[in-house]
Design goal:
By secondary structure, the protein is an alpha/beta fold. The protein has one domain: Alpha-Beta Barrel (TIM Barrel). Helix content is 33%, strand content 18%. The chain has eight helices and eight strands, in the order βαβαβαβαββαβαβαα. An eight-stranded parallel beta sheet has the order 1-8-7-6-5-4-3-2. β7, α6 and β8 form a beta-alpha-beta unit.
Length: 223
């Protein structure tokens, strides 16, 4: 079973002070920083692009932090080089955004990044079975991509259970509505990478929430 990784989503942070917010999360004990890239096409919202990631990377050098770039974009092939140059560590594209999955994964790997593939709540888990052996992570969305602060959809957990059963060594990430009230069901299903936004960034003590999320994942891994 791969180790627990807690990845606060900077979408819930203060965009006027992103470098400070990212540094704050790393000091609070996060393993990864989850960076939501939205283009206003694949999803209706618009966030940040590679130039902003470059600036954040300037404040958090490689080796000190891991940038998990969640690409909620149309034509994800277009942006691989930009995010590699910006300092991304993982490029997680949406299965629904392309038909050239294997070529895209090869391109991501060729530029030195880990490759992830994400699926929306309505996408059947079987869609990514053939890709699982060649990606580094599968992200199961537990909300519709595009907006933060949505309610966790527990009906997505059977996908996580199936993936964990079939691919026990794979990083399986969940994103959307995760926090102290929902971590149990995600951890029991087999998720080991936990994206949490509001529940961490708005907490009085983010380090306590991060520690709780990790402890819950690790406890379920020992069962």
């Amino acid at each position: 079973m791969p180790e627990a990784k807690i990845a606060p989503s900077i979408l819930a942070g203060d965009f006027a002070n992103l470098a400070h917010e990212c540094t704050r999360m790393m000091k609070a004990g996060s393993d990864w920083l989850h960076i939501d890239i939205m283009d206003g096409h694949f999803v209706p919202n618009l966030t940040i692009g590679a130039p902003v990631v470059t600036c954040i990377r300037g404040a958090l050098p490689k080796g000190d932090s891991f940038f998990d770039c969640h690409m909620m974009v149309s034509n994800p092939e277009q942006w691989v080089e930009d995010f590699a140059q910006a300092g991304g560590d993982q490029y997680c594209f949406h299965y629904e955004a392309t038909t050239n999955h294997e070529a895209l994964i090869d391109k991501i790997h060729s530029l030195g990044m880990r490759a992830g593939v994400a699926i929306k709540p309505g996408t059947p888990v079987e869609a990514v079975f053939d890709l699982a052996p060649i990606v580094d992570m599968i992200l199961v969305m537990t909300v519709e991509p595009g907006f933060g602060g949505q309610k966790f959809r527990k009906e997505c957990m059977p996908k996580v259970e199936i993936l964990r059963s079939k691919f026990p060594e794979l990083d399986i990430e969940v994103d959307g509505g995760l926090g102290p009230d929902t971590i149990d069901i995600a951890a029991e299903a087999g998720a080991n990478v936990i994206v949490a936004g509001t529940s961490v960034f708005k907490a009085n003590d983010p380090s306590e929430v991060i520690a709780l999320l990790r402890k819950t994942v690790e406890a379920n891994q020992k069962k």
